[in-house]
C-alpha cells in the first residue's frame, strides 16, 4: 500500500458522521439538474433560467430526472447587497424583475425545482453578498422565496475564521495532530451554521457544499450536507488546466483515491458537467458523463441548451448510466480495480486509473477509459473484476451506450475504443441474473 493510499484509508475510517437524512428522499441520491456557471458565468437573468427550464422539459431532460434549475453566482444586488432595515439579501432587480420568488413560481409551475447560490464567507467568489454571519436570515429568505437547493461556496473567508491546521487535498496530508477531527474545524463550523439554519425552515432545501475538497471535507461532509465538492473547478478540456480550473482527467485522477466517501445521502461532487462544451470531443464528453455517473456525482448540466446538438442531448439522456447513478439499492460509487497504463495507486493528472467497476440492481458494471492519445483495445478480464470472482467464467456483456447486449463471453471481453472514449458495460450471468448481488464497492 502506498503512503497515499494508507493515508486515504485512515481518512475513510474517520468518516463516521451520521448522514444528513432529509424528508422525501431529498439528497439520498445524487442531484440531477442544470446550473448557469459553466456557460453563462455572471451573465445571467431571469430569462436565462426560464428558457432553460422550458428546454429541460422539451428535451426530455425533466422526464429523465433532471429537476434542479440552479442559479449560480452573480444573482445579487452587488452594490446594495442587503436591505438596510431588515438585512435581507437583495436580488439584482434589473436581472430578476420579479425577484427570485417570481422565478421560483415559474420554475415550479413546470414541475422543476429552483436552486440558488451563496457563500460561507463575507462575499461570493465574484464579490456579491456572502452569508457568513447571516445564515439565519438567508436560510429563511431562501425558504420564503421557494428555493429547493443551495450551492454554498467557500470564497472570502475572513482571517478569524481560518482553520487552525492546513490540509493538503492533493495528498491527504496535514499538520494537524494525529486523530484530529476536521468536523471541529472552522471550515466545518461555517458549513454547520448554514446546515442548522436550513434545517429550521419549513421547506426541504438540498445542501450542496462547494468546498473544493478543503479541510478534509470527505470526513465530515456526510453529516453536514448532501454533497460536497472534492476538487477545484472543472474546465471544458480533457486533461488541460486553466489557472485554478481543471480538465476531466485530473479530476478523475483525484476521484480514484477518494471515491469511497460516497454513499446514499452523501456524495462527493466532482463538479458540474461540461458535456458538449469547450475543447471536449464527442468521445471525451461521453467519458466525462459516464465517469461522473459511475462516481455517483451530482449530475448538474452546464451545457447551454438553446441550440444543443442532439448527440450531446443523447449523452445526457443515457438511460442506463442515469439508472446506475440513481440506483435505489446500491449507493456506493464505482471504484478503480486496476490502473492500466500506470501501476496501481499511481497519481497521474493526465493518465488516471482506466479500469473501474461498480454494482447496480442490474448487474456488475465495468467502465474502461481509453486515456491514450490514440485508439486502443481495452480488455475486461473477468478474473480481475472483484464482483465477478467466484461467479463463473461466462457472462453476458451489455453495452450501456447502445442499450444492447454485445454477446456472451468467456474469460474476457475486448473493446476497441476511439481516442479518450469509455466503454460502459453491464455484466450478468448467462441466464441474465446478477452475478453477485451482495458485492458492493464499500
Ligand atoms: C467557484 C465555484 C464555481 C462557481 C464560482 C462562482 O468557487 O467552485 O463552481 O460557483 O465559484 O463564482
Automatic annotation (TrEMBL):
Catalysed transformations (reactions): Hydrolysis of terminal, non-reducing alpha-D-galactose residues in alpha-D-galactosides, including galactose oligosaccharides, galactomannans and galactolipids
Signal peptide: 1-19
Function (record text): Hydrolyzes a variety of simple alpha-D-galactoside as well as more complex molecules such as oligosaccharides and polysaccharides.
Record's GO cellular component terms: extracellular region
Subcellular location: Secreted
Name of the protein this chain belongs to: Alpha-galactosidase
One MF term in the entry's GO annotations: alpha-galactosidase activity
PROSITE patterns cross-referenced by the UniProt entry: ALPHA_GALACTOSIDASE
Main location: secreted
Protein family: Belongs to the glycosyl hydrolase 27 family.
Keywords: Disulfide bond, Glycoprotein, Glycosidase, Hydrolase, Secreted, Signal
Domain called Alpha galactosidase C-terminal: residue spans: 352-427
Keyword Metal-binding on entry: no
GO biological process terms, semicolon-separated: carbohydrate metabolic process
EC number assigned by the record: 3.2.1.22
Amino acid at each position: 500500500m502506498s503512503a497515499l493510499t494508507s493515508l486515504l484509508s485512515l481518512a475513510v475510517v474517520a468518516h463516521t458522521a451520521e448522514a444528513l437524512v432529509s424528508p422525501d428522499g431529498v439528497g439520498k441520491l445524487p442531484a440531477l439538474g442544470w446550473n448557469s456557471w459553466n456557460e453563462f458565468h455572471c451573465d445571467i437573468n431571469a430569462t436565462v433560467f426560464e428558457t432553460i427550464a422550458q428546454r429541460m422539459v422539451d428535451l426530455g431532460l425533466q422526464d429523465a430526472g433532471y429537476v434542479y434549475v440552479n442559479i449560480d453566482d452573480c444573482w445579487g444586488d452587488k452594490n446594495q447587497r442587503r436591505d438596510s432595515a431588515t438585512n435581507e439579501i437583495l436580488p439584482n432587480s434589473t436581472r430578476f424583475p420579479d425577484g427570485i420568488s417570481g422565478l421560483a413560481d415559474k420554475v415550479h409551475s413546470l414541475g422543476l425545482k429552483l436552486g440558488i447560490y451563496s457563500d460561507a464567507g463575507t462575499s461570493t467568489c465574484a464579490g456579491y453578498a456572502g452569508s457568513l454571519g447571516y445564515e439565519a436570515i438567508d436560510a429563511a429568505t431562501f425558504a420564503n422565496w421557494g428555493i429547493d437547493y443551495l450551492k454554498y461556496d467557500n470564497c472570502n473567508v475572513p482571517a478569524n475564521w481560518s482553520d487552525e491546521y492546513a490540509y493538503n487535498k492533493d495528498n491527504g496530508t496535514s499538520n494537524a495532530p494525529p486523530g484530529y477531527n476536521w468536523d471541529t474545524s472552522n471550515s466545518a463550523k461555517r458549513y454547520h451554521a448554514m446546515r442548522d439554519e436550513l434545517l429550521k425552515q419549513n421547506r426541504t432545501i438540498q445542501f450542496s457544499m462547494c468546498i473544493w475538497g478543503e479541510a478534509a471535507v470527505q470526513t465530515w461532509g456526510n453529516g453536514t450536507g448532501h454533497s460536497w465538492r472534492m476538487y477545484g473547478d472543472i474546465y471544458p478540456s480533457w486533461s488541460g488546466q486553466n489557472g485554478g480550473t481543471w480538465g476531466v482527467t485530473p479530476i478523475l485522477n483525484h476521484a480514484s483515491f477518494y471515491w469511497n466517501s460516497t454513499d446514499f445521502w452523501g456524495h462527493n461532487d466532482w463538479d458540474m458537467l461540461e458535456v458538449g462544451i469547450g475543447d471536449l470531443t464527442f468521445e471525451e464528453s461521453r467519458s466525462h458523463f459516464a465517469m461522473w455517473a459511475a462516481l455517483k456525482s451530482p449530475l448538474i448540466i452546464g451545457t447551454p441548451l438553446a441550440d444543443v446538438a442532439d448527440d450531446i442531448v443523447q449523452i445526457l439522456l443515457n438511460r442506463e448510466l442515469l439508472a446506475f447513478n440513481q440506483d435505489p439499492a446500491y449507493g456506493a460509487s464505482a471504484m478503480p480495480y486496476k490502473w492500466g497504463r500506470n501501476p496501481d495507486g499511481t497519481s497521474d493528472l493526465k493518465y488516471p486509473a482506466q479500469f473501474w467497476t461498480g454494482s447496480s440492481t442490474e448487474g456488475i458494471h465495468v467502465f474502461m477509459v481509453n486515456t491514450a492519445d490514440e485508439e486502443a483495445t481495452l480488455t475486461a478480464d473477468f478474473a480481475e473484476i472483484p464482483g465477478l470472482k467466484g461467479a463463473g467464467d461466462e457472462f453476458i456483456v451489455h453495452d450501456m451506450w447502445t442499450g444492447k447486449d454485445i454477446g456472451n463471453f468467456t474469460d474476457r471481453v475486448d473493446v476497441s475504443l476511439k481516442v479518450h472514449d469509455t466503454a460502459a458495460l453491464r455484466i450478468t450471468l448467462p441466464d441474465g441474473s446478477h452475478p453477485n448481488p451482495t458485492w458492493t464497492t464499500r
